[in-house]
């Protein structure tokens, strides 16, 4: 189960940085838009990962996976787009200068 362990730091950083951005204006609206982006990215990941795996472009060693799959794609593949959907806007928000 190597891949699930690799995902943990990405998820933790995403949670911490997103929580740090909670005090910035429009947090609720940002989270709503991040959720929409996450759904779109997860759907795209499901489609394209399954197509690429089915086409034989890449495989995963079974001993390194959690065993949970969505179609042919391992569950671990879905952590990265989910993190990106929340982490990128949170970082951008934290890098903005606060308006006075």
TrEMBL record:
Membrane-related topology note: Multi-pass membrane protein
Residue ranges occupied by any Lycopene cyclase domain in the UniProt entry: 10-93
Name of this chain's protein: Lycopene cyclase domain-containing protein
Keywords from the UniProt entry: Carotenoid biosynthesis, Isomerase, Membrane, Transmembrane, Transmembrane helix
Principal cellular location given in the protein's record: membrane
Cellular localisation: Membrane
Keyword Lyase found: no
Pathway(s) per entry: Carotenoid biosynthesis
Record flagged with keyword Membrane: yes
Membrane spanning residue stretches: 6-22, 34-58, 78-95
One Pfam family hit: Lycopene_cyc
Source species taxonomy: Bacteria, Bacillati, Actinomycetota, Actinomycetes, Micrococcales
Signal peptide stretch: none
InterPro entries cross-referenced by the UniProt entry: Lycopene_cyclase_dom (IPR017825)
